[in-house]
Amino acid sequence: MCARRFLLFIFVLILLSVGAAFAVHQWGTEVLMRQAVPKGRFEAAEAGSGPDYAKLESWIARPELPDNPSHWLPDGFADTRKGSAAVFYVHPTTYLLRDRWNGPLSGHSDSEFRAALFVRSQASAFNHVGEVWAPRYRQAAYGAFLLKNEDAQKALDLAYADVKAAFDRFLSQVPNGRPIILAAHSQGALHLSRLLQERRGELRNRLVAAYVVGWPLSTAADLPPMGLRGCAAPDEAGCVLSWQSFGEPGNPDIVLDAWQGSEGPAGVKRKREDMLCVNPLTGTAGGAALPQANPGTLVPTPDLASGTLEPGRVGARCEDGFLTVFGDIPPLGPYVLPGNNYHVYDYALFWAAVRRDAERRLAAWRRR
């Protein structure tokens, strides 16, 4: 897979991980419903048989795989350090058709290709702190996020069941006592938030940090069922990071309209003032930092043949639950969403900062 194809698709296809609320804002509900909602009723058999995570082909990345996409690094960036953690990463939506409610594991080359690209651009930020495991899963189709009905919920439940099974296999292969980092984006972050609630016992004393990025979390409604809190310091372990990036002036109303007032897993209603924002530049909830504090934004070269890190370009501050980015923001691509929403670039804006953050938290975990 050539570097040119990699970056070309990264900056086009990451857009497709964006939640349905943004698309509603841009194209209108009726048009979107016709174009994106899966046809017919949910049928589990339509997604094909479930994955066998004992087999290598059920994984996009894991230690034994050759040509592991999580090993990718930007041009001119060399880092031979290898930490002791095990990293479990869940990719965002890559299945874009509406012929079924859940994407199949194989037989759809475009979806598989996109999933590998997400592993390269996002999970690669963690490849120096440990070995990355990234499962294939029967992800909910994009249109499943447009409706709150039985079919949509069954599609999300099926996707989550695969993620949970992959995590159980991951745990069975990682020696007891080895530190664990969890990371995801968009749909993957939704599944990861549920996993943190249901597997809190298995993670006790092993979690370095959970990067639940591109999906809103409530400190009152979502974190207590996980038994975790938002990261308050850059050298804290066993905590959660979450952010949603907006430029200036930002308008997050479309996100708030869908999220505010909804209920968490214990029935507690979500409020804007409880939305978690951990600044990846400071490692603190509610933090702020000037562009000089950013060790590197992942930027494509003009011909999209490769990518480089540009430090000191993008600052960020948490404001009312969202992360406002500012400074001399480099040309990442044409996919800033309505409301100056940089969701597409949540990881790219702070690639080197995420890498630094994971290293700090692993060191903190070792000192516990």
Report on this structure:
The chain has ten helices and 14 strands. With 368 residues, the protein is of the alpha/beta class. It has one domain. Helix 1 crosses helix 4 and helix 2 crosses helix 3 (29-36). The longest helix is centred in the middle third of the chain and has 24 residues, at 150-173.
Radius of gyration: 19 Å
- What sort of overall outline do the alpha carbons produce when their principal axes are compared? globular
In the predicted model, the low-confidence regions spanning at least 5 consecutive residues are 1-30
Tally of contiguous helical segments: 10
The count of domains is 1
How can the largest sheet be summarized?
Answer: 6 strands, mixed
Note the topology:
Blueprint: H1 3-13, H2 20-27, H3 29-36, E1 59-61, E2 85-90, H4 109-121, E3 130-135, H5 150-173, E4 180-185, H6 187-198, H7 200-203, E5 207-213, H8 223-226, E6 239-241, E7 245-246, H9 253-259, E8 278-279, E9 284-285, E10 288-289, E11 297-300, E12 307-310, E13 314-319, E14 322-327, H10 351-367
Parallel strand pairs: 2-3, 2-4, 4-5, 5-6, 7-14
Antiparallel strand pairs: 1-3, 8-9, 10-13, 11-12, 13-14
